[in-house]
Amino acid sequence: MKAFRILIAEDDELNRQNLVDLVEESGYLAMAVADGKEGMEEFVRDRYDLVITDLRMPNADGLELLRFVKEINPNNLVILVTGYASVHSAVDAMKMGAFDYVTKPLKNDLVKITIERALSYVKLKEENVLLKGRLKNHPDLGKMIGYCEPMKKVFEKIEKVATTDSTVLIHGHSGTGKELVARAIHFNSERKDKPLVPVNCGAIPEELLESELFGHEKGAFTGAIRTRIGRFELAQGGTIFLDEIGDMSPALQVKLLRVIQEKQFERIGGVKTINADVRIIAATNQDLEKLIEEKRFREDLYYRINVIPIYLPPLKERGMDLPILANHFLKKVNKLKKKEVQRISPAVMNMLMEYPWPGNVRELENMIEMLVVMKEEGEIGIEDLPNKIAQRRIPATTQCSVDFPEEGVDFNNMVVQFEKDLLLKALDKCGGVKNRAAKMLNLNRTTLVEKLKRL
Ligand SMILES: Nc1ncnc2c1ncn2[C@@H]1O[C@H](COP(=O)(O)OP(=O)(O)OP(=O)(O)O)[C@@H](O)[C@H]1O
Ligand SMILES: [Mg+2]
After folding, report:
1. CB within 5 A of ion ligand 2: which residues?
2. Residue 89: predicted pLDDT
């Protein structure tokens, strides 16, 4: 049976330790952080069944943490810990979806009962989900994940443009989710019951692309043995997704321009003009303005398609979205491949966060799939990582880098200095977040805090 994992956010050290003890006595795994901000960071790094949070904390308070948890996973349960004076806020918290609250000073038995109640609820829900999962087993299409500011902006834009018929140009490096955005726009628009027809302009040979887009009449050219309907006609009433539009030849660019301007076209070799009621969404991972300078892309076409630009940031710039996505893919692949990998270890998650991800979300998804399939069950640890990720972090300090002078050294002084360097380096890497630094150093949080105090 899997052990339940409980995240505890409490700034008061005594109370925090008390909660950790209570959780561990009951046989569950506890992770403790000292403020709301650390709580948010920790919540997305790992899988938690329950969050217990103090109300008043520095950086972000319990209500902010509650809101964050509920936004990311509305099913996740939160128990609030509050002083008598703030029972009003506890009631507010219940309205915001907290499962329950306990008041300070903590009564251990009551806390344990509340935890049990919450966890039995979690169990029940899981069984329910499993049942439902067996009933209808279709993947959740078009679900995009993004909580960082740039992705929130992308979603706002998608919502706005979905209701219009405007041409959209999606720009982003490979694997950033361009196709997903095109799908989201189409399936949120009034055209959603009509076809969404993708055309990869980069993958279809130039001489075939024209007929692919506009179709041809029988006998239009050698080999045209029967009439063929093109993708613009197939997309009638719906949306055409022109992927890799930067690869389209100049001759074809002129023809596309005409469709956009006049909303009409003819099949190759045809005389009949066909009206195109088709919304155009284009995507590119190239810098089209540079292609214009190089005379490889028509400026007039650029202005016609770039009516509403949507830029997708690289994965590396999405901060906390990375662990959320990694855990999302873990769940997805487990389900799809019928595996039971429980979690990605925190040390691995740290490494994933340091890797530059040139292939963006697609590369992350493929990586998690590979890890889950190979691992099958249990926890993904550092030893499971491929070299390109694991080897990035062999610290220089594990090699012997000490200059040893002839006259000898002051051992104690050097050790203190080395310890200081290590702590500062870890803190620096973690943007000053002690919880994360402790994990990177494989230290207890309290030990780290004590060491820092001493320094
Ligand atoms: N925000 C996201 N949330 C969940 N999954 C995502 C997200 N972004 C991308 N993906 C997944 O990553 C993979 C790559 O996405 P997609 O094909 O849309 O990217 P792309 O930009 O079109 O890539 P390419 O340039 O290689 O064609 C897909 O499997 C997609 O489901
Ligand atoms: Mg694509």
Report:
1. 178-179
2. 80
